[in-house]
Amino acid sequence: MRLPLLALLAKGPAHGYELKQSLETLFGSAYPQPNVGQVYVTLTRLEKAGLIRGEAVEQSSRPNKRIYELTEAGHEAVAAWFEQTSDEPRVRDEFFMKLALAPLTGVADQIGLINRQRRHYLNLMRAMSRLAATEDRDNRVAQLLIEGAMLHLQADLDWLERCQEEME
Fold it and tell me: Beta strand 14-15 with 65-70: parallel, antiparallel or unpaired?
């Protein structure tokens, strides 16, 4: 959560609850909603790391709030994050480890493992379809996130078919 918060602060100062709301608005229900406590803990850590600075702002009828802004180091961290590519190919896949080890152990059947995993992926696909139907159609970010998740699931299902062909 630290880098997305830094990225939001790149557009200007904000307080923790505004940042939480920005994440919720941007991603909709397609992405796990951040806990406000988690946001404030992360902001405290970012401030201690020198990536942001906070300033208490007095409010007349409410408790004071803390407004955060990026430091130069924070700007550099956000820029570096956007320059990095994301993730490696999934070579350390837990399911594949189970599939490869099953015949050596005699504890599980490979085809049974594949079928169980396939059912799980299909259930996830149905859940994603329901989520896509309930998500605001105008929230293109959330719709693209859901579509990406569904495409990954479809690729995983295709891969399971390939595994099963090899096992039979």
Answer: antiparallel
For residue 16, count other CB atoms closer than 10 A to its CB: 23
- Is residue 68 a contact partner of residue 52, using CB atoms and an 8 Å limit? yes
CA 2 from chain center: how many Å?
A: 12
**CA 59 to CA 42: how far, in whole Å?**
23
127 vs 63: CA distance, rounded Å:
41
Instruction: Give the whole-angstrom CA distance, residue 137 versus residue 128.
Output: 14
Percent of the chain topping pLDDT 90:
60
pLDDT tens per residue across span 111-152: 999 999 999 999 999 999 999 998 888 899 999 999 999 999
Q: 67 near 57, Cβ under 8 Å?
A: yes
Q: Which two three-digit tokens encode residue 78?
A: 């956000």
Q: Is 66 exposed, middle or buried (0-12, 13-18, 19+ CB in 10 A)?
A: middle
Can you give the pTM of this predicted structure?
A: 0.72
* pLDDT one-digit tens code per residue, 32-84: 888 889 999 999 999 999 999 999 988 888 888 899 999 999 999 999 998 88
Q: What's the distance, CA 157 to chain centroid?
A: 21
Query: How many Cβ atoms sit within 10 Å of the Cβ of residue 78?
Result: 20
